[in-house]
Amino acid sequence: MIKKWLRAVLILLLTGVFLYFAFRSVTWADAFRHMMRADLGLFIVVLLLTPLHLVIRAFRWRYLLVHEKKEVKFANLVSGNAVGFTVSYIFPGRIGEIVKPLYVARKENIRPGFVIGTIVVERIFDMFTMCFLLGVFLLARPLYESIFRVQAEAYAKLTSWGIVGVAFASALLAVSLLFYFFKERALRVAAVVLKLVPQRWSAKILKLLHEFIDGLKFFHSLGNVLVYILLSLAVWLGITFFYWVFFLAYHITIPYFLLIPYIFLTMVGASIPTPGMAGGFHAFSILGLTLLYPSIFPKGDTSLAAGLTIVVHAVQLIMTCLIGYVILWREGLSLFQLRKLGETIEP
Questions:
Q1: Annotated domain spans of the chain
Q2: Does the predicted model carry a pTM greater than 0.85?
Q3: Residue 46: pLDDT over 90
């Protein structure tokens, strides 16, 4: 109980720190004025596009799950994504990342550890895909430099964060591959380590680890990897399209390709485990807009950047949670029941 309270306090403090740095120089009257100037027709299109990533992610996820079960209901995958993001938006710690696979495992009668393994694959490729797109943006600099100038500081920061992202994703990939290609040895090592914990826990953990490694069987085929790379590109190019239309709704034209570094920064901010991405998303979004597009979002006046960041965050949060709540209502579930679902894999 004390650990839970301590974790909650630390997360709230982290959220507060990011919110302070994100909004400390905002003129709120100007920010609210900017929020209200959207083109109504395009803004409705933005609302309709919000669930797009849930659908594309479901297509990609099914490609991993067919290695365990051939006929997986597409609707359950969309629902799993929706309720997973809803739980992550409402509760701190991104526990939706655990709820999502457990929800689908229960709906489709698939081994929980296997589905969790596919989520690890998803996150690895999310990081690699965005780092790849960022790399293309940085390498293509001579092609767009005459029409789009970015400060040297921005390129330096993007390069540094890109290197960190690649390093983290590579480490996660290396560990996953070691687990998969040296499965028996990994399980023996885990069994030795788990002798330090009670047997009733170690047996459950070993079972989950075995299922988890099976969830990585996708790596066995180079063809599978190449197809999944294309699906991952579709996910993130679709997300970029959503933001492109969002800015158009506010009469701001940023070339589609030039939004990639901004999307990368919002991904970094969203990965910080604060409730509803609050703080981290806002800080990195405002930073990205003022750092990358200073002619549109002046660094000395963050009101426009802050106003649009608040709106785009609210749109994603509200629309996703509405979809999640409808799904839960139809199934007679509550958010707290989903939160407790994670306890089924705890010792």
A1: 38-345
A2: yes
A3: yes
